[in-house]
Amino acid sequence: MLAQRRQLQEARSIIKSGKNYDQAEKMMTKLLKDSANLHKPRIYEMWLTSVEKQYDQVNEAMYKKQKVDTTKFFDLTRRIFTIGERLDSLDMRPDKKGRVSLSYRTDNAQRLATYRPNLYFGGTYHLRKNQLQTAYDCFEMYLDCDRQPLFTGYDFWKNDPLMPTVAYWATYTGYRMGNPALTLRYANEARRDTSKLEYTMQYMAQARLMLKDEKAYLAQLQEGVKLYPKSPYFFPRLMDYYMEKGDYEKGLSYAEDALQTDSLNELFLLAKSTMLLNLGRNEECLKVSERLIQVNVRNADAYYNAGTACLNMALNMDSRREKKQIRKMYEKARPFMESCRQLLPDAKEKWGPSLYRIYFNLNLGRQFDEIDKILKK
Fold this sequence. Notes:
Elements: H1 2-17, H2 21-31, H3 41-63, H4 70-91, H5 105-115, H6 117-128, H7 132-144, H8 156-159, H9 163-176, H10 180-185, H11 187-190, H12 197-210, H13 214-227, H14 234-245, H15 248-261, H16 266-278, H17 282-295, H18 300-315, H19 323-343, H20 348-361, H21 365-376
Helix pairs in contact: 1-2, 1-3, 2-3, 3-4, 4-5, 4-6, 6-7, 7-9, 9-12, 12-13, 13-14, 14-15, 14-16, 15-16, 16-17, 16-18, 17-18, 18-19, 18-20, 19-20, 20-21
């Protein structure tokens, strides 16, 4: 007990001297290694003061535009909050009669609230340095203040307009870390930042995918398509999902809804064309594909879908009674598939079998022999 008092007095003298504040901190952390001292608020109060003094030194040097250790500055900020919250938890302990008398809270909450913005700046600093875990810790500490009893009455979610932005950066950092749990932890709060909502929803979808939560992933994509139909993220992935599941009717429905927002959008037209092709609605597929080719004459998939639709229609005709119509369909398919080949010369597996059928049925010997050799290779 006497040794503890001596250490506290010595630390107080160091702080009054205006230098070697880190030495005073070391004395307090050494005292706390003794489990008998773990519940003594005065040690934590002195520890907090010693770290605050170090913070003030670095802050003053920054104000004077002197060279400082920025990492140390933000580390000191985090330590201030860690110590302040521990001190508050001791302050909340009831006495032997069950009474709670808060001796430190009001003053400490006011002090820490002034440092709080630097938790956010520390997060963005570490994020730029690609120190993702430290960045996340800073953002989380900023957000967690709302939950801490120390800040009772501050109601940061109501009174601090920066909260949704910090929640967004925490969500983004969790995504960058490849950690779905951290990505989702503050994602609902991040959604309040409507300026970044599209990106927040993308990170949420990726997290659901990583967690193999198919139902939540699908719901996220559906919501994304509804809110941001032209986003390059949501619509293609939703179409991929329905293609994989073989639910072409559902995919077609979303493609048609999307076309209501932009009737000449290549992505939407291709999705509709592809879903119609898979549903066996070949004539409709051909019309949509031709419209897409008008929009972009270099869209290889549009030519492929159009050619395949023609081949499917030929295949569905009566080979005995509709020979002329069948030949016409092969003739119609030919330029589509040849254009696909021209645009995608290396995708032999895509256009090769179709051109093989076309040249065979049109008795084009030279072209057939060439494709035959290509396929045999």
